[in-house]
Amino acid sequence: MQKDLIFQQCHHHFNDIVAIRRDIHQHPEIGFDVHRTAGIAADALHALGIPVKTGIGKTGVVGDLEVPGATKRIALRADMDALPIQELTEVPFKSKIDGKAHLCGHDAHTAMLIGTARILSHLRSSLKTHVRFVFQPSEEVFPGGAEAMMADGVLEDVDEIYGIHVFPLYGVGEYATCVGPMLAQSDTFRITLTGKGGHAAFPHLTVDPIVIGAQFVTAVQSIVARNVNPLDSAVVSITQLHGGDANLQEGLTGAALNVIPPQVLIGGTVRTLQKSVQTRVREQLERLLAGFADANNAAYTFKYQEGCPVTYNHEPCVNAATSAARGLVGEDNLIFPVPPILGGEDFGCYSQEIPACFVMVGAGNEEKGIVNMCHHPQFDIDENCMIYGMALLTSLAIHQTSIEKPI
Ligand SMILES: [Zn+2]
Ligand SMILES: [Zn+2]
């Protein structure tokens, strides 16, 4: 009964949830500044008679569906924030705000969790656990909404937490997850390399930070290849390299091409799945930097910022998620275990605190040309995926059993 009932409920709410998703899509909000979106979530929970707390983690919203006699509480989490990117799709409900867009699908996450709250309210009598609906701000910027909501107690009395993410590389009706690390620890680093500027025709009177910086950037490419066990995973990407006085908007027009600058700025990101690998990469980055600076009589600063921790899927929660997925779409449409990816997700913060599982929900459709990955300016989802997102969250909640708590 469960599968048919769940899908029937998801279809029943589908048009409404699409409308909510499109409304949020047209009005994207960034970081913690998600007042309008949070208002939509809070109003939707209020309308269901679910007690709501707002202002959790600045602008997060928490609703508690209480089930008489239940001893366990699971949390279902959706993120609400958009990205500071210009949308280049041609959808009729395109972002109305220049330079901001929902290109990671968090509009769909919010809408699906609202739909799930509606369905679970309706099916409350079949529930054996309390359900906490968590609408989180600022997933894209670290430190972000997960930490802020945890500081405000969002995980108090919660036994397990689940999150989903739309994923266009898989088709609608597919789910993907794995046990253990699923998404990476994502860190950033900022470097200043200071030499001695001067006339470009008198390099012997300078300490040229451009040459040292270039040597460093090249050497960094061997950190993963020569320091990390080939069976482990790591990425080191240099994403910023600035030197000289050029205005980036104007290119090199007007730039002083006869001056060796005093300083270069270098920045990038490190992605790892294990603490030991992260430590090794971090140490090797600074060792190389110190070595090149020292060998060339330059000075440096090295600032390493740890970001989102690894999103770690705990086995009992994965078992619950995979059995829900199998029940809905069958073994053939469950991609398990999916290899971990080195993207970051601040759901990782929750997963370091309590048992958790994160699931990718297929949202792509090659025939409709919906193939672009999250953060691409033409990212889009096949909205039918929202049926499967809601179905999974609903099934997860319904199939949870109560737990014996020590008296
Ligand atoms: Zn994103
Ligand atoms: Zn995202």
Structural descriptors:
four-stranded antiparallel β-sheet; 2 domains; single chain; Aminopeptidase; Alpha-Beta Plaits; elongated; alpha/beta; 9 helices; 407 residues; binds zinc ion
What does this structure look like?
With 407 residues, the chain is of the alpha/beta class. The chain has 2 domains: 2-183 and 310-399, Aminopeptidase; 185-305, Alpha-Beta Plaits. 34% of the residues lie in helices and 24% in strands. It has 9 helices and 16 strands. It has helices spanning 2-26, 35-47, 106-122, 145-151, 209-227, 275-295, 315-329, 347-351, 385-399, and strands at 52-56, 60-65, 73-79, 130-136, 160-171, 175-176, 180-183, 185-194, 198-199, 234-243, 259-260, 263-272, 299-305, 311-313, 334-335, 356-364. The chain has an 8-stranded mixed beta sheet, with helices on both faces. A 4-stranded antiparallel beta sheet has the order 10-12-8-13, covered by helices on one side. Strand 1 and strand 2 form a beta hairpin. The model has no long low-confidence stretch (mean pLDDT 96). The protein binds zinc ion (2 copies). One zinc ion binds at residues 104, 140, 374-375.
